[in-house]
Amino acid sequence: MTDAAVFLVAGLCLLLAVVLPQALRRVAVSAPMVLVGVGLLIGLFPIPDSLSLEPEADRELILHVTELTVLVALMGVGLALDRPLRPRIRRTWGYWSPTWRLLAIAMPLTIGLVALLGWAFAGLGPAAALLLGAVLAPTDPVLASDVQVGGPMTAEEIDELETGLDADDGDTAHRLDEVRFSLTSEAGLNDGLAFPFVYLAILVAAGSFTLADAGTWFGWYLVGKIVLGVVVGLASGWALSRVAFRSSRPSLRLAEQGEPLLVLAALLASYGAAELVGGYGFLAVFTCAMAMRASERAHDYHRAMHEVVERLERLFTLVVLLFLGIATTNGLLDGLELSGVMIALALIFVIRPVAGLLALGVLPKPAEKAGGVSRADRLAVAFFGVRGVGSLYYLAYAAGEVELTDLAWLWSTVAFTIVASVLVHGVAATPWLDHVDRRRGATGPGLAGPREALDPTSG
């Protein structure tokens, strides 16, 4: 493939990224499916010798590209969530009940079950098995746009939402889209919360894991780094919001000027600050976005920032999916074995659905309350646990920290799982969520508009 051909293919692929979201709005084919498919086809043709597609050789490139992609997606997710969460008001924590359940129950279960299969069925060592579970457990904020909320609501919709929630209005609870909200908020938080288990696998692989190591892991990697990430994110979001919305100097009130690039400064500053002090940067970015959204919740400035992030996310996703598809037909699956295929399919069709149903079904909150998930919606939330770009990042990160004898098998299995998830969840998303909307009677203005509540193709 000549350089001119590379430019031509890149331009055509970028055109695909632009037109696909609109062209596929009501078709049971998602944009990620098409982009991966295009990559698979491109990979069948000769590629330049200078273009290496070996994950072990290009680990640094994979690490940084996937890192940026996830960061952009996390900022977008944090800005898009309209449901309030006020730390001092206990009632608002209940609005997020499905999220806490998925994080506290479904995610650890998924890690444990996948690790168990890797150890017992694939013959992996304890460290590699644990790493496989940690890498594949988090749902993805990048590839799950078809099952996530759209952009921020308008001021009128926010007022209607908060009025209904404050009044504990049953009609408001009925019209809330718990499926998309649960999947979006889960994806926003579990990418950061998977890191402690990745570190646990790294510590186990590094040598003997003593009781002292366990204490260090719990106190620092599980608790300390999470707290630091959240605190840095909240502080960053609060400080930037004070400047953008309420600065004493008009020239600094960026919200009034409509300058949306503040969102990129917020993303980079919160991530960098959290990493410098040792916290989890992914959590910092998400909580920074949440803190910014909590300030002047109904301001149109959030919508402008979200549009910038959404376009960046689309571009990064294009790059990652194309190269994933190309690499898949150029040797990335050479290390794939039947055990890896079975684990991937078990995760998609059994482990995640069962873990999700258990998480949402234990002492469930009444469906007529905000944060309560009906039985039918629980199945949708449990099933649509899309795997994606975050898994590639975590595996690339771990591969740079410790030597793993099963690394080729891990790359092949993780890549196959992502491609299978894109195909399975992409086909099912539109018809299933259309059915969810029809059953809820989600038509009309306000909460039934095409945002948090209701557009199955938004995001």
From TrEMBL:
GO cellular component: plasma membrane
GO molecular function terms noted in the UniProt entry: antiporter activity
Protein location: Cell membrane
Transmembrane region(s): 61-81, 102-122, 193-212, 219-241, 261-294, 315-333, 339-364, 376-396, 408-433
The Cation/H+ exchanger transmembrane domain, residue ranges: 16-433
Membrane topology designation: Multi-pass membrane protein
This protein's UniProt keywords: Antiport, Ion transport, Membrane, Transmembrane, Transmembrane helix, Transport
GO BP: any one term: proton transmembrane transport
Name of the protein in question: NhaP-type Na+/H+ or K+/H+ antiporter
Species: Nocardioides psychrotolerans
